[in-house]
C-alpha cells in the first residue's frame, strides 16, 4: 500500500492489529508512523509504547505482544528490526515459523508495528502472512514518476492548487534530482502556503520558494545544454560558479540529464515510442516527450562521448585534478 492509500485507511479508522512499514524513504515512514500512533493512542500516552530494536529476539517480541496493557486500552509494540533479512539454517527457519505463528495470532489487546529500512521479499511466507493479517505500507524512494500521489495529498493539505505549468515545472525539477528530499519539499511547500495568499500556485511561486535547492539552478543549465543553447548554458554555468554552487552538484545534475538523453536517443534508434521510453526510464509522459525533443538534437555518439567526458570530470574533481575550464570544454563539445 502506498502513502495516500495508507493514510486514507487511517482517516477511515480502518485499524489493524499488525502493520509493516518497509522501505528507504524515512520521511514517509515517519509521517505514517506518527499518524498511526496518533490514531491508536492520545499524545499524552504515547510514552507507553514498547519499543524494541535489532537486539530483540523473536521470543522477546512474543513476550511483549502477550503482555496485558496496564495504563491504556491497547498494548502497542513498535519493533524496528532486520527480521526480514533471510537467514539460512534450521534454527533461523524455526524462529521464522515461530514469528509467523505470532503474526497470525496477535492478541486482541495488542497492536504490533514492524518497521524495516529494507525492501522485503514479497515471495516469502513472512511477508505474505503480514499482508494477510495486517497492513503493509511501502515507504519507497520517491522520484518524479511516483511522487504524484504525495504531491496531491500535500497540496490538498495546504489548501493550494498548482496550475498545469507550475505542476509540470515541479515534476521536471524533481526529475533531475539524484535523490528527492521529501522533508525539504514538505517544509518548502508549507512555506509556500504561508506566503502565497492565492489558492492557485503558479510557476514563479515555485521558482521563488524552491530557490534553496541546489538542483534548481543546475536544472536550468541542464535544460540549456539539452537544447544545445551554448550561450545560455555557459552564462548559467558562470552564474552558478560565481554564486558558490559546488562543481560536484552541477556535475551530478549534468550527468543524470545527459545520460537520460543518451538512453532516449538509443531507444529512438530502436524504434521505441514515447510511451515505451517513459516506462523504461521511469518518466511521467510529458517529461518523456520533453526529453525526446532534446535527445533528437544530438547524434548518439555525441551523447555517448559526453557521458564519458562527464565521468572523467567526476574522477578529476574527486582526485583534485580540476581545471578552470573543465565544464566549459564539455559544454562546448556537446552543443557545437
From TrEMBL:
One of its GO terms (molecular function) is DNA-directed DNA polymerase activity. InterPro entries: DNA_pol3_clamp-load_cplx_C, DNA_pol3_delta-like_C, DNA_pol3_delta_N, DNA_polIII_delta, P-loop_NTPase. It comes from the Bacteria. It is an enzyme of class 2 (transferase). It catalyses: DNA(n) + a 2'-deoxyribonucleoside 5'-triphosphate = DNA(n+1) + diphosphate. Residues 217-332 form the DNA polymerase III delta subunit-like C-terminal domain. Its EC number is 2.7.7.7. Residues 19-139 form the DNA polymerase III delta N-terminal domain. Pfam families: DNA_pol3_delta (PF06144), DNA_pol3_delta_C (PF21694). Keywords: DNA replication, DNA-directed DNA polymerase, Nucleotidyltransferase, Transferase. NCBIfam families: holA. Belongs to the DNA polymerase HolA subunit family. This is DNA polymerase III subunit delta. It comes from Pectinatus haikarae.
Amino acid at each position: 500500500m502506498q502513502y495516500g492509500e495508507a493514510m486514507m485507511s487511517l482517516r477511515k479508522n480502518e485499524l489493524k492489529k499488525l502493520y509493516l512499514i518497509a522501505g528507504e524513504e524515512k520521511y514517509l515512514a515517519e509521517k505514517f508512523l506518527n499518524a498511526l500512533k496518533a490514531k491508536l493512542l492520545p499524545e499524552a500516552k504515547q510514552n507507553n509504547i514498547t519499543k524494541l530494536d535489532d537486539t530483540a529476539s523473536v521470543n522477546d517480541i512474543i513476550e511483549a505482544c502477550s503482555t496485558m496493557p496496564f495504563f491504556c486500552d491497547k498494548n502497542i509494540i513498535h519493533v524496528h528490526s532486520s527480521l526480514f533479512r533471510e537467514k539460512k539454517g534450521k534454527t533461523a527457519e524455526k524462529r521464522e515459523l515461530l514469528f509467523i505463528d505470532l503474526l497470525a495470532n496477535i492478541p486482541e489487546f495488542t497492536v504490533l508495528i514492524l518497521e524495516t529500512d529494507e525492501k522485503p521479499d514479497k515471495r516469502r511466507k513472512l511477508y505474505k502472512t503480514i499482508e494477510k493479517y495486517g497492513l503493509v505500507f511501502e515507504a519507497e524512494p520517491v522520484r518524479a514518476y511516483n511522487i504524484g500521489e504525495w504531491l496531491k495529498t500535500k497540496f490538498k493539505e495546504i489548501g493550494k492548487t498548482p496550475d498545469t505549468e507550475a505542476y509540470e515545472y515541479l515534476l521536471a525539477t524533481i526529475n533531475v534530482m539524484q535523490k528527492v528530499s521529501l522533508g525539504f519539499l514538505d517544509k518548502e511547500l508549507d512555506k509556500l502556503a504561508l506566503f502565497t495568499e492565492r489558492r492557485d500556485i503558479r510557476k514563479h511561486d515555485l521558482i521563488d520558494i524552491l530557490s534553496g535547492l541546489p538542483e534548481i539552478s543546475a536544472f536550468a543549465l541542464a535544460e540549456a545544454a539539452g537544447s544545445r543553447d551554448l550561450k545560455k548554458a555557459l552564462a548559467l554555468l558562470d552564474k552558478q560558479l560565481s554564486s558558490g554552487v559546488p562543481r560536484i552538484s552541477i556535475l551530478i545534475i549534468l550527468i543524470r540529464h545527459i545520460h537520460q538523453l543518451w538512453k532516449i536517443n538509443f531507444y529512438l534508434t530502436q524504434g521505441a515510442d514515447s510511451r515505451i521510453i517513459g516506462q523504461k526510464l521511469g518518466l511521467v509522459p510529458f517529461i518523456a516527450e520533453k526529453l525526446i525533443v532534446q535527445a533528437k538534437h544530438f547524434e548518439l555518439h555525441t551523447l555517448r562521448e559526453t557521458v564519458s567526458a562527464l565521468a572523467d570530470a567526476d574522477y578529476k574533481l574527486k582526485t583534485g585534478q580540476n581545471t578552470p575550464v573543465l565544464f566549459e570544454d564539455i559544454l562546448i563539445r556537446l552543443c557545437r
